[in-house]
TrEMBL record:
<dbReference type="InterPro" id="IPR036428">
    <property type="entry name" value="PCD_sf"/>
</dbReference>
<dbReference type="GO" id="GO:0006729">
    <property type="term" value="P:tetrahydrobiopterin biosynthetic process"/>
</dbReference>
<protein>
    <recommendedName>
        <fullName>Putative pterin-4-alpha-carbinolamine dehydratase</fullName>
        <ecNumber>4.2.1.96</ecNumber>
    </recommendedName>
</protein>
<comment type="similarity">
    <text>Belongs to the pterin-4-alpha-carbinolamine dehydratase family.</text>
</comment>
<dbReference type="GO" id="GO:0008124">
    <property type="term" value="F:4-alpha-hydroxytetrahydrobiopterin dehydratase activity"/>
</dbReference>
<dbReference type="InterPro" id="IPR001533">
    <property type="entry name" value="Pterin_deHydtase"/>
</dbReference>
<dbReference type="Pfam" id="PF01329">
    <property type="entry name" value="Pterin_4a"/>
</dbReference>
<keyword id="KW-0456">Lyase</keyword>
């Protein structure tokens, strides 16, 4: 069992992860990305995949050509946890 995100950390999310939003109707963080083309989008996804494996925490995501959408939630916590914040921050650090 993974600890759910504390109320204090939940309240801090807009400051911690300004580019991420709370997904509608579910306890998940989401962010949309747009790249120059598919090659750039897929290269980003490949790097996120390695981060996910390293953190043992995996995204729910989709890709259409140069766009990637990522949702982060912790299945083992039934919603957001610190693992989602950690992965979101690591994903943001991949961007220029
Ligand atoms: N990824 N988003 C997410 N949520 C999980 O609960 C999770 C995961 N990746 C791996 C994983 N759990 C396993 O390590 C076990 O905890 C099931």
């Amino acid at each position: 069992m993974v600890e759910p995100l504390s109320p204090a950390r939940r309240q801090a999310l807009p400051d911690l992860l300004p580019h991420w939003s709370l997904a509608a109707g579910r306890d998940a963080l989401c962010r949309r990305f747009q790249f120059r083309d598919f090659t750039e989008a897929f290269g980003f996804m490949a790097r996120v995949a390695l981060l996910a494996e390293k953190q043992d925490h995996h995204p729910e995501w989709s890709n259409v050509w140069n766009r990637v959408e990522i949702a982060l939630t912790t299945h083992d916590a039934g919603g957001l946890s610190e693992r989602d914040i950690a992965l979101a921050a690591a994903v943001d650090a991949l961007l220029p």
